Amino acid sequence: MAEVRLQGSEAELENPTLVEGFPGVGLVGKIATDHLIEHLDMRYYASVHCEGLPRIGIYRGGDRTVRPPVRLYVSEAHDLLALRSDAPISAAAVAEVADCLTSWIVEQDATPIYLSGLPADLDDEDSRDLYGIATGNGEEHLETADIAMPPEDGVITGPTGALINSAAREDIDSVGLVVECDPQFPDPRAASVLLEEGIESIADLEVDVQDLVTSAEEIRAKREQLAQQMQAIAQEESSQAKPLRMYQ
C-alpha cells in the first residue's frame, strides 16, 4: 500500500519548502540534503512506503534502530521538509514513487526543490555552475534568488526527473536546481553550491557549508560505497541532468 506514515506528532507548517535528496550522479542531492538535516537537527517525521521502493532496513553505527530507506525530516522552526534516501530507486519504480510522493507534497501545500547533478569535466578546485528550472509558478523563486537559466537544452532522468515530470503534469509550483559535478565520484563541493547558492535563498535559510568543502575527501570516502551501488545500476536509472542533444 502506497503511503507516507507519520512518525510522532504532526508538524505545524505553513507553506513549507521540501528539499529532495534521492541519490544521483555525484550524489549532490543526497549530500546536500543529508547535510541540511544534520546541520538543522531536523526531526525524523515520516516513513515513505510507495510501491516499488526497496524493502530493506537501514541502521546506523552506534544505533540499533532500523528504519526504511526513504524518510522525511522536518524543521518547524524553518518551515522545512527534507526527503532522505539511503538506497537507489530502480527505473521500474520511479513513476510510481514520483506519483506517490507528489500526492503527499500537494497535500502538505509544500514547494519542492528538486536537486540534480550535471556531469562535467571538473577537478576538485574548479567552480561549479548552478542553473534553475521550474514548473508552475516556481520560476518566481529562481528570479528572486538570481539563479541562472540553463545554457542549453537538457533532460533530467531517474527519480528526480520523474518527480519534476509529475510536478509539470499536475501544474504545481516546483523548483529544480542543476549543478555541474564530477560524474565519477561523490562531489561535496557541488553539494555546497546547491546549498549556498540555491537552497539558502529559496528556503530562506543560513547553512554553514564550510565543513563540506574542507572535509571533501573524508565525505567522498564515506559515500564511495553508495556511489558504487549507483554505478551498478544502469546509467539511465540514476537521477542526473543531461544535454538534450544526447537524445537527438
From TrEMBL:
It comes from Haloarchaeobius amylolyticus. The lineage of its organism: Archaea, Methanobacteriati, Methanobacteriota, Stenosarchaea group, Halobacteria. Signal peptide: none annotated. InterPro entries: Proteasome_assmbl_chaperone_2, PSMG2_sf. This is Proteasome assembly chaperone family protein. Keywords: Coiled coil, Proteasome. Residues 202-239 form a coiled coil. It comes from the Archaea. GO terms for cellular component: proteasome complex. Pfam families: PAC2. PANTHER family: 3-ISOPROPYLMALATE DEHYDRATASE (PTHR35610:SF8), 3-ISOPROPYLMALATE DEHYDRATASE-RELATED (PTHR35610).
